[in-house]
Design brief:
- By secondary structure, the protein is an all-alpha fold.
- About 95% of the residues lie in helices and about 0% in strands.
- It has 2 helices and no strands.
- The protein is rod-shaped.
- The termini are far apart.
- About 0% of the residues are buried.
């Protein structure tokens, strides 16, 4: 395991892979947060429609 880590530290492609992983994880966190917000708003709208129809 340590030899793999050393090889990645010497290789520039390893640094690039780490950067892309960090970017992808930040995008995923932002997407999840925005979907949650949109989901809550949709739930509220559908709840209002349901109450209006009752």
């Amino acid at each position: 395991m340590l030899s793999i880590f050393r090889r990645l530290m010497k290789d520039n492609q390893g640094a690039t892979a780490v950067e892309y992983t960090l970017i992808a994880s930040l995008i995923a966190v932002a997407a999840i947060a925005s979907m949650r917000t949109v989901g809550d708003k949709i739930s509220n709208v559908l709840g209002n429609v349901s109450n209006s129809l009752s």
